[in-house]
Amino acid sequence: MGESRRGPLKSAVPSNVVSPVRRCSRTACGRPAVATLTYVYADSTAVLGPLATYAEPHCYDLCAEHSERLTAPRGWEVVRLLDGSAPARPSGDDLEALANAVREAARPQQRAAGAGGGGSRSVDPMEVARRGHLRVLRSPDN
């Protein structure tokens, strides 16, 4: 009953000057922030990751353009954390896994039928079912 009906972004005093959208921390840039930059001075590292949930005093919010162009001082390392919602680019491992899956699916099913009951493969007690190269495993909690 004592709960406020206002949403988390509404201000007690309406204002046309203050925007609920977080903006880029760079001077004279008014674009919306998409990433947060944090410095780890002990490791000489600049960490650029997805936009933080809350604005922190020692972090800097950056727009897409400034986050792409970010460079660190000489001797420092830039670590870019991937955003889970952004589409990841395929890697060589992804291509190899896809090729292996296609090869496995193209193999004749005679191998499974020929193995019958006297298979030389050891059975994993955690394995519940198997289909091709995919296995369904029992939860370790059960």
Task: Explain how this protein is built.
With 142 residues, this protein is α+β, with helices and mostly antiparallel strands. Helices cover 18% and strands 20% of the residues. The protein has helices spanning 64-68, 92-106, 110-115, and strands spanning 35-40, 45-50, 59-62, 77-80, 127-131, 134-137. The chain has a 4-stranded mixed sheet with strand order 3-1-2-4. It has a two-stranded antiparallel sheet with strand order 5-6. Strand 1 and strand 2 (45-50) form a beta hairpin. The two termini are 42 Å apart.
Radius of gyration: 26 Å
Quickly give the structural class.
Answer: alpha+beta
End-to-end span in angstroms?
42 Å
- The average pLDDT is 75
Quaternary state reads single chain
Major sheet: 4 strands, mixed
